[in-house]
Specification:
Shape: globular
Radius of gyration: 21 Å
Low-confidence stretches: none
Number of strands: 25
CATH topology of the largest domain: D-amino Acid Aminotransferase, Chain A, domain 1
Bound molecules: adenosine-5'-diphosphate, magnesium ion
CATH superfamily of the largest domain: ATP-grasp fold, B domain
CATH class of the largest domain: Alpha Beta
Helix content: 25-40%
Largest sheet: 5 strands, parallel
Strand order of the largest sheet: 3-2-1-4-5
Number of domains: 3
Number of helices: 12
Oligomer: single chain
């Protein structure tokens, strides 16, 4: 089979790396890819947003399956467009992807189907939102409705901060049309867990859990980022009891909700969960693989990812199963100094050629310059290791991080540490 992966980050590098191991795969392409991906797949210089060019490429190359990585492509209806052109594609259609691209839509879905989530109100008028804020106890969480590159969520400690957030989102349109509506919700206390499950419309296949580290600095300090590292499994947090609660209260109800609403959801579902003293609460639904969760999950997946994706598309998830390595995996993100603010690019990366076989480095923001790897984005590399236990996996990942050099590299030193605490 000929495969096209759409996207160019660490998630897509992990997808390409894993799909390439499938005995069914004869050729693999990635648009636009990155320097690491180009070592495994043929890079195709077409942007994620150029749907027409992607469809033309898939037709010309007789691509058998296209796998879509990023949320914005799904929100823009890439799956519908491929299908309308008779092409096979992995990911939810545009209507279903609204579960990620509209937080108002997702909250309504959760309320309708009894999926536990923070209490909330949605607003189309800033004046009404501002009035509502007066009567609340703080902190509260203000969320732009649409996709905002992970920056559209503000935790407001006071009514003034909430008012400022509403003003910036709805009146100044800081995030463009994503701010036509806002959700204002209850602040939840707890630890976050990333859940992944393939959904074929009627069945789901749950992956192991993972934990992300969203903040830029150690000890969960500093601004939010795209994710500074992950580990899996989060055994301390995701107990068998909690997993059961998530199956019953989130995934079973999600499937029942699809049926009740007549919605066809086929693809990866990645709910962000807050584990509270009152049980799991869904913070949001993501309609695609997480980044950098995918790096640790696929490192632990035994067997053929392609077979799982095909079963998802064909509604046969009840006929397949997935096996997982028992060893934990840790992914430490090496970012450009300054990220998530501004940062330079084009800095040479050294040390990638001397790593042990136990290490997989997934590239995120890299490109080739005269056959040398240089930095090309905020998140640069995801250094991923397996270990006999979590502390060995961390040790192994950090040893590799120490061997990889680029000017002003920034990484957290505590990825996975919360998995070790008693
Ligand atoms: N109700 C809430 N209570 C506490 N923290 C929250 C709440 N909602 C979101 N957050 C925090 O904000 C982050 C981003 O929110 P999320 O809903 O996942 O939006 P997005 O990923 O689209 O930016 C979460 O990972 C979490 O840390
Ligand atoms: Mg999120």
């Amino acid at each position: 089979m000929k495969i096209l992966v759409v996207g160019g980050g660490g998630r897509e590098h992990a997808l390409v790396w894993k799909l390439k191991q499938s005995p069914h795969v004869t050729a693999i392409f990635c648009a636009p890819g990155n320097a690491g991906i180009s070592q495994l797949a043929t890079s195709v210089p077409i942007k994620v947003s150029e749907q027409k060019a992607l469809v033309e490429f898939a037709k010309a190359q007789n691509i058998d399956l296209t796998v879509v990585g990023p949320d914005d492509a799904l929100a823009a209806g890439i799956v519908d467009f491929f299908q309308a052109n008779g092409l096979r594609v992995f990911g939810p259609n545009q209507a279903a992807a609204q579960l990620e691209s509209s937080k108002v839509f997702a909250k309504d879905f959760m309320k309708r189907h009894g999926i536990p989530t923070a209490r909330s109100q949605s607003f189309e008028e800033s004046a009404e939102a501002l009035r509502y804020c007066q009567g609340l106890s703080y902190p509260v969480v203000v969320k732009a409705d649409g996709l905002a590159l992970g920056k559209g969520v503000i935790i407001a400690e006071t009514v003034e901060e909430a008012a400022l957030a509403i003003h910036e989102i709805m009146e100044l349109r800081k995030f463009g049309d994503a701010g036509r509506r806002v959700v204002i919700e209850e602040f939840l206390l707890g630890e976050e867990c990333s859940i992944h499950a393939l959904v074929d419309g009627k069945n789901y296949l749950l992956f192991p859990g993972a934990q992300d580290h969203k903040r830029a600095f150690d000890g969960d300090q500093g601004p939010n980022t795209g994710g500074m590292g992950t580990f899996s499994p989060p055994s301390k947090l995701l107990t068998p009891e909690l997993e059961n609660a998530i199956r019953e209260q989130v995934l079973d109800r999600f499937i029942a909700g699809l049926r009740a609403d007549g919605m066809d959801y086929r693809g990866m579902l990645f709910p962000g969960i807050m584990v509270t003293s009152d049980g799991p609460k869904v913070l949001e639904f993501n309609c695609r693989f997480g980044d950098p969760e995918t790096q640790v999950l696929l490192t632990r997946l035994k067997g053929d990812l392609l077979e799982l994706l095909e079963a998802t598309i064909d509604g046969r998830l009840h006929e397949v199963s997935a096996e997982w390595r028992p060893e934990p995996a840790v992914c430490v993100v090496m970012a450009s100094g300054g990220y998530p603010g501004s940062y330079p690019t084009g800095l040479p990366i050294a040390g990638l050629d001397v790593l042990s076989d136990a290490i997989t480095v997934f590239h995120a923001g890299t490109r080739l310059e005269d056959e040398h790897f240089v930095t090309a984005g905020g998140r640069v590399l995801g250094v991923t290791a397996l270990g006999a236990d979590l502390s060995q996996a961390r040790g192994c990942a950090y040893e590799a991080v120490a061997a990889i050099k680029f000017e002003n590299a920034h990484f957290r030193r505590d990825i996975g540490a919360k998995g070790l605490k008693v």
